[in-house]
Amino acid sequence: MELGLSGKSVIVTGASRGIGLAIAEGFAKEGAKVSICARGAEGLEVARAQIATYGGTVHAQLCDVSDADALVAYIDAAAAALGGLNVLVSNPSGFGKTDDEDGWRLGLDVDLMALVRGSWAAVPHIEKAGGGALIHTASISGLTASQRTPPYGAVKAAVIQYTKTQALQLAAKNIRVVCLAPGSIEFPGGTWDDARQNNPKLYAGIKGSIPFDRLGAPEEVANLAVFLASDAASWVTGVTIAVDGGQML
Ligand code: NAP
Hints:
The chain has a single domain (9-242), classed as NAD(P)-binding Rossmann-like Domain (Rossmann fold, 3-Layer(aba) Sandwich), CATH 3.40.50.720. It is built from eight helices and seven strands. It has helices spanning 18-29, 41-52, 68-82, 101-128, 150-170, 191-198, 200-208, 218-229, and strands at residues 9-13, 33-38, 58-62, 87-90, 132-137, 175-182, 240-243. The model has no long low-confidence stretch (mean pLDDT 97). The structure holds NADP nicotinamide-adenine-dinucleotide phosphate.
């Protein structure tokens, strides 16, 4: 299938590891120019070098997306470095788990407001390029109840709702808006890798809740993100798609 992503300019925020890195690599494999950000310098440089092995343009910049001014400056700098912008993937989460001020603040700042502010900053660039896509990252926790993570589920649900409204607003600018809802995704150094080693009961419970009896891989989310951003998904907007191996079933 021709995805038409070669030469397109893509920003993936929070992409030094895990799902964000896999998404950035997925775009680079399709010949897209890619910009990534993260807070940690070492991980960002390793990720930049890894993405560069696919041969295309890679831009990387330190940025904490919860810092509104820094986020806007990053998106403008990335669009300049890539020669325009067609796609923004908003990936990081604050993983707000505790039902207290800190948990909610993390969720609101990182999962929701960074995605909103990132959209505001990216849309003029994407419009100038003639259109493109915003890819948001929610979770199946935004679609179902979860006892463990009240702020996380609530802010992800807000992202799912915002996706619908934004899709209506931005169609006139030829911009599609779609949302990923991953289930439990495992990779070295990630939440579920940690649980497998340090909380085997939780890990076994999650694994047992997935009909394929395994957790997902970041590449399985990345494949969906790359497809949704591409011309092949030109009639897909406003939707949230679960990529969870049936975990919600
Ligand atoms: P992760 O392992 O925590 O990786 C997040 C990436 O974003 C890292 O590169 C991290 O680098 C960066 N990052 C974190 N906070 C940031 C901030 N404030 N500003 C800039 N960069 C930041 O996350 P993940 O597990 O891959 O999850 C990615 C997304 O998928 C999240 O939205 C998450 O809610 C969603 N999701 C994940 C799962 C799962 O099972 N993993 C399931 C459902 C949904 P630095 O730490 O260096 O900044």
